[in-house]
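job 3f2a | input accepted
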Amino acid sequence: MKKYLSCLVAVLLALTASAEVKYVFYFIGDGMGVNQINVTETYLAAIKGKIGIEPILMASLPVVGMVNTYSATNGVTDSAAGGTALATGHKTKNGAIGVLEDLQTPCTSIAAWAQKAGAAVGVATTVAITHATPASFYGHQPDRNMYYEIGQDLCKSGYDFFAGSDFHRPNTKEGEPSLREQAKAAGYTILTGGYKEYEKKGRKADKLILLQSDYQNDKLGSDHLPYALDQDKNDLTLEQICRAGINYLMSKQKNGFFFELEGGMIDYACHRNDIGNAINEVLDFDKAIKVAYEFYQQHPDETIIVITADHETGGLVMGKGPYEIHTDLLRFQHKSIDELKWMLNELYKKNPKKFNWAAVEKVLKEEMGFGAGISLSDKQQERLQGRWNAIEKAIAENDKVRDRINDLGETAKHIINEVAYISWASGGHSNGYVPIYAVGPGTEVFQGRIDNIEIAPAMAKIAGWTAE
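job 3f2a | predicted structure (468 res):
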């Protein structure tokens, strides 16, 4: 009888803890496999002169597991199927958003379950708010490239808070209103002045969409925020989005909140095999997690934080044969490879007559550390010089100058990987395990090996929301 009563008390305590959880953070590092975490922590140790790791916050949380990511139709998932699995608890066909494998039957997400339970809902990302991962939390379309229709799903969702770069391709339906116009008609206030504008105007909005500046959209397109390596003080960041989102969702005074935040640029950097950039994106993602963790420390019995990824990107490996790595050299990479290419092309456009090898070499020294921290071999120097010779030829023939400049940027990227002893399997996704980290009441269910479709239903159960 005593043993029975002890078990009953334990069950009741567990149910009480679950009933008290009001605030749910769901962080998704797009493309962030276990090696993306490992290389980041190895880099932090290396720049301190140590062999080993310097832990980041997410990997230091008490609950740690690993996640399978395959989709219903493919051994290697894409972000649409991966995002749908993480959001809804259902596997689907690659390319599909919020629908089952038949591409017709909609499946609702944990965000919708939270909304139905009376919670405030936020969906945020460092890429376009209509990209695959955020779209999986509100959209229902057979093809992830149906950006206009996905944007219309966003407007219909009624969620309280969205943030990211912009709608992607917001004007793709000729003769119909833009997605921004439709969002405003649905009651959303759209802010494009970053965190400062949020502080001035955001709190009073009935429903809010926080986007990057039109200047950045003109430079980068509507596709994504600047990489962390390329940001200046005026750029919107995921850390700022997290602060604004928490503040805004709390102001709604609803029955708690659900807040999904995606570090979408980790995936972009890994698709490009841009290692220094990828590390900085993981660190930027971790900064946003620190903001959520500060909130958790203030509400430890009412908050859970769950962090995972939709898939791994690039097949990242530390090592190229010799039993050594030199991630410390990555501290000399000050710009993303995309930004390096842009800088070199701008240098040529602004003053073609002064665009010479000395000018290019100066940029490579300042932004990549070539000759200033990173010593190049004769063969590496010859490869760069060969790319410059091709640029000179293109300039003389007035043909494909931009392509040849971009080729030089690609060679610089390969050299950065070589000197750090980093290798990549591809420019695409892999079926590697992704990590899951968590903290808060009930999150011990995420320990060990789990499948991606188990995460959202388990989070909902902890919060007392009904999974549908």
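job 3f2a | The first helix runs from residue 2 to 20.
job 3f2a | closed
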